[in-house]
Amino acid sequence: MCQFLSALDYPPPKTGCMIILIAHILDEDQWFPTENNVFFRTMGYNSLGTTGEDIWHITGWNWECEEFQHFTDEEGGFEIIGWQNMYAMPPELANEDTE
Questions:
Q1: Cβ proximity of 46 and 14 under 8 Å
Q2: Is 25 exposed, middle or buried (0-12, 13-18, 19+ CB in 10 A)?
Q3: What one-character-per-residue DSSP string does 19-63 give?
Q4: How many CB atoms lie under 10 A from the CB of residue 58?
């Protein structure tokens, strides 16, 4: 099983590539988490390298609307604290101890 990397130690790529994320909820009134009240796993991307805009785009389930919705960190309410590639570990990190 692949481990999540700390966003502080290994900043996630901001190339528009879809990755798996661990988000920390900052404003619990805006969110409907399924796992616990503070952290949730999702997928998303940041296209800073291609658009020049440093904005995280993530998806999440809204229990009131009963549908997936798109959220951005411009709206507030979350921060990215961990990440993992969807398919393979980047070569520069493959031999590092990430525990």
A1: yes
A2: middle
A3: EEEEEEES-GGG---SS-SSEEEEEEEE-HHHHS---EEEEEEET
A4: 19
Strand pairing category for 67-72 and 56-62? antiparallel
Return the higher-pLDDT residue of 9 and 74: 9
d(CA 60, CA 71): 7
Question: Which residues make beta-bridge pairs with 25?
Answer: 78
DSSP structure class, residue 17: -
The predicted-structure confidence for 25-65, as pLDDT tens digits, reads as follows: 876 665 555 555 678 888 999 999 999 999 999 987 766 77
Amino acid at 95: N
Q: How far apart are CA 81 and CA 7, in angstroms?
A: 5
Q: Does residue 57 contact residue 44 with C-beta atoms inside 8 Å? A: yes
Q: Which amino acid is at 76?
A: G
Query: pTM to 2 decimals?
Result: 0.73
